[in-house]
Amino acid sequence: MTACKVVHDTIVIERRFAVSPARVFAAWSDPNARDRWDVPGDDWVIAESEHDFRVGGREYSYFGPRGAPRYSGDGTYLRIIPDSLIVMAGTMSDETGPMSASLSTVEFQAGGPGTLMRYTEQSAFMGDETAAMRIEGWTEIFDRLEVELKG
After folding, report:
1. What pLDDT digit, counting tens, does each position of 18-55 carry?
2. Helix, strand, or coil here: 121?
3. Which residue positions in the chain have pLDDT lower than 70?
4. What gap in Å lies between CA 130 and CA 136, rounded to an integer?
5. Domains plus CATH for the chain?
6. What are the phi and psi torsion angles at 53 (to 5°)?
7. Could you give the C-alpha distances from 5 to 102, 106, 114, 128, 130, in angstroms and in order?
């Protein structure tokens, strides 16, 4: 039996957007919008996706660098409160198998100029990926979300 190292970590990323919570929530719930911003850079693509945005619905994507997608994300929506909260659980894998299992919460709070979005992810990393790498990826993705919201 091969030993597997598992590292548990929690990441929290807060971003303020100059639009309403309803607008930020819509960018998460609309499949076309999500496919535009939910990759960490212009050189990445979503080769395949499924968005069943409802409690119990599945979220799936196959993505990666342009010309060589090799990652998959597969999750289930656990709780959705329009314009306020999304809770989902899922896994991320590459061609060798599972990389992580996560519980993720996205909170949308009105205040100040626009919306404070708080993304919290509690993960079990099962390989070479780290919380720092995940934070870097989400930071780039949320930069793209900001561009989407301005568009």
Report:
1. 999 999 999 999 999 999 999 988 899 999 999 999 99
2. strand
3. 1-3
4. 10
5. 7-150 (3.30.530.20)
6. -80, 85
7. 16, 28, 41, 9, 12
